[in-house]
Amino acid sequence: MQLNYIANADVPSSSGRTLPVIDPSDGQTFDEIQRSNAADIDSAVRAARDCFEGVWHKVSAADRGRLLYKLSQKIAEHVDELALIEQRDCGKPVKQARADAVALVRYFEFYAGACDKLHGETIPYQDGYSVFTWREPHGVTGHIIPWNYPMQIFGRSVGGAWRRATCAW
């Protein structure tokens, strides 16, 4: 059974309820995930906010990039394992699931390299004014990940949010 991961700990949902994870190829349950509710989301957001305000915002953009790159390498070490999970969870052919796992690695590599590349634009405006890009973090973000491409969408959205947070400091 998969638990929620909140504040560096595996925790069950506050309701104690779970949802079955069903293999689409045979209709059989192969795991369970937490059936989380608003209280669980509030707890996760509070933990993320505490981390952001307490430690994370003090980490330099270059160091965040290095951490994200290490994560990409750890994912790369487990591509075949992740592909099999993706295949079973989504009902994809193994070849496509493996391509998704490799794409996840690439997304995190890309965003790792972009963390400390601060680029902005000066926007043309009327005489006497300057309009420019001001980077600041959005803070805690939530991501809705669809069932059919979870690894790829996770890489695009979470990797991008990580990068945006890093560029702000």
Q: Topology, please?
A:
Blueprint: E1 4-6, E2 9-11, E3 18-22, E4 29-34, H1 38-54, H2 61-77, H3 79-90, H4 94-114, E5 122-123, E6 131-132, H5 150-167
Antiparallel strand pairs: 1-2, 3-4, 5-6
Helix pairs in contact: 2-4, 2-5, 3-4, 4-5
Keywords:
globular, 5 helices, single chain, about 170 residues, two-stranded antiparallel ribbon, two-stranded antiparallel sheet, Aldehyde Dehydrogenase, Chain A, domain 1
Structure write-up:
By secondary structure, the protein is of the alpha+beta class. The model has no long low-confidence stretch (mean pLDDT 88). Helix content is 50%, strand content 12%. It has 5 helices and 6 strands. The strands form 3 sheets. Strands 1-2 form a two-stranded antiparallel ribbon. A two-stranded antiparallel ribbon has the order 3-4. Strands 5-6 form a two-stranded antiparallel sheet. It folds into 2 domains: 1-54, no CATH class; 60-169, Aldehyde Dehydrogenase, Chain A, domain 1 (3-Layer(aba) Sandwich), CATH 3.40.605.
Task: Indicate the proportion of strand residues.
Answer: 5-15%
Give the strand order of the largest sheet, numbering strands 1, 2, ... along the chain: 1-2
The radius of gyration computed from the alpha-carbon positions, rounded to a whole number of angstroms, is: 19 Å
Proper CATH architecture of the largest domain: 3-Layer(aba) Sandwich
Q: Termini distance?
A: 38 Å
Principal-axes shape call: globular
Number of separate domains = 2
Low-confidence runs of at least 5 consecutive residues: none
Structural class determined from secondary elements: alpha+beta
Number of helices: 5
Q: What fold name stands as the CATH topology of the largest domain?
A: Aldehyde Dehydrogenase, Chain A, domain 1
Can you count the beta strands? 6
Mean pLDDT: 88
User: Would you identify the CATH H-level superfamily of the largest domain?
Assistant: Aldehyde Dehydrogenase, Chain A, domain 1
CATH class type of the largest domain: Alpha Beta
Quick one: biggest sheet?
A: 2 strands, antiparallel
Order of helices and strands: EEEEHHHHEEH
Helix content: 40-55%
